Amino acid sequence: MKIFVSRNIPGSALDKLKSSGNEVKISEFDRPLTPEEFLEGAKGADAVLSLLSDKIDGEVVEAIGPQLKIVSNYAVGFDNIVVPELTEKGIVVTNTPSDEVNEAVAEHAWALLLALARRIVEADESTRKGAYKGWEPGIFLGVNMIGKTLGIVGMGRIGEMTARRAKGFNMRVLYNKHAPDPEVEKELGVEFADLDKLYTESDFISLHVPLTDETRHMINKSAFAKMKKGVILVNTARGPVVDEGDLVDALRDGKVGGAGLDVYDNEPNINPELITMENVVLTPHIASATWEARNKMGEQAVSAILDCLSGKMPENIVDKDVWQRRRT
Ligand code: DGY
């Protein structure tokens, strides 16, 4: 069968695909594909290993052809795929959630939180420029984490792992999800809060919701208005959860004291004002970029394809209902 991989991935997972007896085509470009290039590569494929930069809907899979059986997305998030349109056609969609990825993202959220609290990037830049002339009482004053409140918006696995680390810093943790989770409260000593309370009482806010119609631009002007002055905001979830224009305004007028962003409203474009701001730390969507996480993602994405093509139900199907009426 034919398998199209839309970009080379780190690690050795693709070797397994190549030695599986299938015809494997890996994109020749080491960059995100244009829609035309994606289609050209994927046309006629039975399976596609896609990246979050590939936009895939009913029309795209129609153009790939009736033989397409699975789209295996090399990411936990699958907002680049219109899953119901693929499910309706009997195409299996899988993703790559794992402890390795979740831990990596939680660790990155913490890297951004600490970088902002202790002004690491600003201080590094200044030191490299030769500005350090000896110990000074008042340079780069930051804030302690101990005793502060961390608000976690979205308490799935990554939110929980982020919360667990906060306990090590002796912080109070508020969390928001669709309904209170007594088990998590008992295990982690965290407190459920509606969004208004979380915004009002948090010194740090870390976002861990998926991108949906409900969460798109949920962090906007009206949310910022409720937040504490000087709050530090970290986003390792999806860029469009935050209205970037409103964030720039909130940073400019000091309502938000610092922002740590790994994801952007319109990737790979970044609001140019954010780039000029010293109290903003920017990373290029690398929260899951550890060897452990990416190896696991590769293994999962490849196994999903091999399982599906051999008639075995893959582990991480996004909408499991598709399995009964999948294309064979
Ligand atoms: C994911 O897995 O959804 C990340 O954003 C990319 O690794």
Automatic annotation (TrEMBL):
Residues 111-287 form the D-isomer specific 2-hydroxyacid dehydrogenase NAD-binding domain. GO terms for cellular component: cytosol. Signal peptide: none annotated. The keyword Metal-binding does not apply. Keywords: NAD, Oxidoreductase. Pfam families: 2-Hacid_dh, 2-Hacid_dh_C. GO terms for molecular function: glyoxylate reductase (NADPH) activity; hydroxypyruvate reductase [NAD(P)H] activity; NAD binding. It comes from the Bacteria. Residues 4-318 form the D-isomer specific 2-hydroxyacid dehydrogenase catalytic domain. PROSITE patterns: D_2_HYDROXYACID_DH_2, D_2_HYDROXYACID_DH_3. Belongs to the D-isomer specific 2-hydroxyacid dehydrogenase family. This is D-glycerate dehydrogenase. It comes from Candidatus Woesebacteria bacterium RIFCSPHIGHO2_01_FULL_44_21.
